[in-house]
Amino acid sequence: MTTSPGRTSGLSGLTSRPPSTGEAPPEDRRGPWRRWLYALAVVALLAEMAVAMLTTAVQQTPTIDEPVYVGTAVFSLEQHSLRYNAEHPPLGKLIIAAGPAFADVRLDPGFAGDQTQLGRHVLYESGHDPGLLLLLARLPVIVLTLLFGLVVFAFARELAGPAGGVVALALYAFSPDVIAHGSLATLDVPVAGFLVTSAWLLWRARRRPARHLPLAGLALGAAVATKMSALAAVPVLLLLVVLSVQRARRTPGDGPRRTARHLGLGVAAALGVALIAVAVVWACYLAVDPRLRWTTPPGLPAGHGLRALAGRLPLPRPYRDGLRLQFGLEDQVWTTFLFGRLHVGSLWYYLPAALLVKTPLGLLALGVAGAVVLVAVPRLRPAAPYVLVPPAVLLAAAMTGSRDLGVRYAVFVPMFLAIAAAGAVAVRRRWAHGAVAALVVFAAISSLRTFPYYLPYSNEAFGGPAQTHLRLHDSNVDWGQDLGRLADRLRERYPGERIWLVYKGSGVPSRYGIDAADPLAVPPADVHGLLVVSDSALAKADDHLAALVRGSTPIDEVGHSVTIFRRP
Question: What is the pLDDT of residue 22?
């Protein structure tokens, strides 16, 4: 909605400048030195983020999901087959494959294992250094994450000027969750970034729909072709298409007939954006296998209600069957660990609670304040549907899932929060500017203090990364990423000692020089020496492991994700 020229917002301390429409904000015209200053800030923030992600990518061994994605990426390029990992569309894996393509990885022609075995085969049995191969797979996602940072900056800059853009980029660049998952060869940051990009382009389409709506369709298609959870955002983004077209076509004095015509144009534009998105999904599948060879896996769950629509979507058969595979995973009973308690089944409030733990307090405060400003200030209110509604809908959809395995399912939240935080810059009071600066610095310091252990990050209100394993598990803290660090620690501090290992991950301990036995395969009385346990395994310990831990003394920890005990 817009206001008349003479109308004020009724809120003191806020500017009355008209809403941004994609033109350079007035601050850009005050002198070239200021533009250079903002450009330098953008480069510095992206450079800091690149260093953080590269350091993390080099130091971390495979997380649980990465070998499957890397193996599938290599197999898809070499064999032009959609055989593996059908529960996820191919675009994210094609992006990952851009790195290993330079290593010329060749599969054993006789390989016939499942996707877990495929990942292990590619990383550890293809004749390449697994660390280098994994780094190559992670590099395309790192580059993409940095590019999404530019989208966050551009979106926020159009809302609140260059200062708002720098604030948003700083919060994005220092977000531990974005850094953690942006440095992995996984799909969570790519799908979130494509959705943010689509929302930004739809905002820009309010002024130039012919230029930006097709691009928004491409970004939406990229999201849907990366991860199926993006489907939840499709209805709201298509409604934003209608809203953008109406805003672009609206003129003073429009009557009911012209309004109805604009609505019809908006619906037609939404249909066009949807068709572009569908075309992107088809193109991604055909890029893997131009003949689209596919056999429906046996035992797929039957679809009922809304799930029945999966079989009617105008998408490739492998995509629709992949949706049914996802439904099968959702129908399983998963365990949840939250605030020190193990639950059977999912908790509807798990993701909001986990986000409260793992989001920097500075980002939380500025994101909430900025969201209030976006809703309260008339000149910024038109942006609220584009910045606030998509993450709200996506979070609500994610909260209905049965797999409470980490905030990575909602990594879009810190991205949109960073953009919303730019709204706080619109408060034209000196104390407000000081508060914004202080909160950005607070968020940055919180992030720097956890370097390079970003996966187990939690904010100061919950004790920091050393305490995360007491409240959360799985990809929130221990996703198998510290096997290499564990090997170094054992070699440096405990040479020659007997090692018993309970490891939750996809890495192969022996490939990192860890010679360990399984303590769960023998009676507790036979376990003596070092007992090494992944913190995710501790969170879900059965009676056998619990008995082993009770009779042990904790003496060390690795990466805030692995605990070392001594047993007499």
Answer: 44
pLDDT of 531 > 60? The answer is yes
pLDDT the model gives residue 13: 47
Residues 161-208 have pLDDT tens digits of: 999 999 999 999 999 999 999 999 999 999 999 999 999 999 999 999
Instruction: Give CA 455 to chain center in angstroms.
Output: 12
Token look-up 């999201």 returns 223
Which pair of tokens denotes residue 303? Answer: 């679809």
Predicted confidence (pLDDT) at residue 106 exceeds the cutoff of 90: no
Lookup: tokens for 108: 């054993």
Pairing of strands 499-502, 335-338: unpaired
Residues 172 and 149: beta-carbon distance below 8 Å: yes
Which alpha helices (DSSP H) does 451-559 contain, by range?
483-493, 535-539, 543-550
Residue 224: which of 259, 195, 244 has the closest Cα?
Answer: 195
Task: State the burial class of residue 116 (Cβ atoms within 10 Å of its Cβ: 0-12, 13-18, 19+).
Answer: middle
For 345-382, b where at least 16 C-beta lie within 10 A, e where not — what string? ebeeebbebbbbbbbbbbbbbbbebbbebbebbbbbbb
Count of CA atoms in the C-beta half-sphere (13 A) of 332: 10
Fill in the DSSP letter of residue 82: -
Q: 171 is written with which tokens? A: 């919060």
Q: How many residues does the chain have?
A: 568
Instruction: Give the per-residue SS3 of 506-536.
Output: CCCHHHHCCCCECHHHCCHHHCCEEEEEEHH
Cis peptide preceding 18, ω within 30 of 0 = no
* C-beta separation of 200 from 211 below 8 A: no
What is the pLDDT confidence band of residue 18, given thresholds at 50, 70 and 90? very low
- Across the range 65-80, mean pLDDT stands at 95
223, two tokens: 């999201």
Strand spans (E) along 62-129: none
pLDDT at 11: 41
